[in-house]
Amino acid sequence: MSGKKRIGRQKFQRFRKKQDPAQNVKTLNPSFSTFIGGSHKAWLDKLLEKALLSTHQETWKKYVSLWGPLSDAERQEGVRAALHPDCEYRDPRTTTTGTTELVSYMEHYQEEFPGSTIEMRYFLSHNDRCFVKWEIEDPKRNVLMEGSSYGEFDAEGKIVTMCGFYEMPEPTEVG
């Protein structure tokens, strides 16, 4: 075998059993990392970073879609896929704890802005945290509001913390 190291079949099977490719790379045993070595390891690190960014961005997209006009079943399915059950949400108007309170707030939001959607305009992520810029659009795609959010992800890639920032409109005096 011309001096090349080989991975044992058991190690390879354990590596393949993991579902998330990003998780596979993070859990490699040291002998496999040594096997990769040098510039290949740098390439693998960049690949891992892109996979995590992609995973976090996709999860955040699922979360953002939950604010749109959805059926109860669609919203519950999205909640299970994107959010930790004990997640915390904050914005200038409210604070919620847990998915039940957050879903109630999302439903109230849809009553206030019927048919509106949130469109992500910018996403930046590192170390299981993200910064997002977004716009709320009405069904005719007119921008109603813009803002930014900060989020945190757990080890499974689900969102545990969301904090939205936007300007509150000035109250108007009634006559």
What does this structure look like?
With 175 residues, the chain is of the alpha+beta class. It has a single domain, classed as Nuclear Transport Factor 2, Chain: A, CATH 3.10.450.50. Helix content is 43%, strand content 29%. The chain is built from 6 helices and 6 strands; from the N terminus they run αααααββαββββ. A 6-stranded mixed sheet has the order 2-1-6-5-4-3. Strand 5 and strand 6 form a beta hairpin. Helix 4 packs antiparallel against helix 5.
Query: SSE order, as H and E?
Result: HHHHHEEHEEEE
- The CATH class is Alpha Beta
Q: Domain count, please report it.
A: 1
Oligomer: single chain
Helix/strand structural class: alpha+beta
Return the CATH architecture: Roll
- Count of helical regions: 6
How much helix is in the residues? Answer: 40-55%
Distance between the termini: 89 Å
Quick structural gist:
With 175 residues, the protein is α+β, with helices and mostly antiparallel strands. It is built from 6 helices and 6 strands; from the N terminus they run αααααββαββββ.
Write the SSE topology.
Elements: H1 9-17, H2 21-26, H3 30-36, H4 38-65, H5 72-82, E1 83-91, E2 94-97, H6 99-112, E3 117-126, E4 129-137, E5 143-153, E6 159-165
Parallel strand pairs: 1-6
Antiparallel strand pairs: 1-2, 3-4, 4-5, 5-6
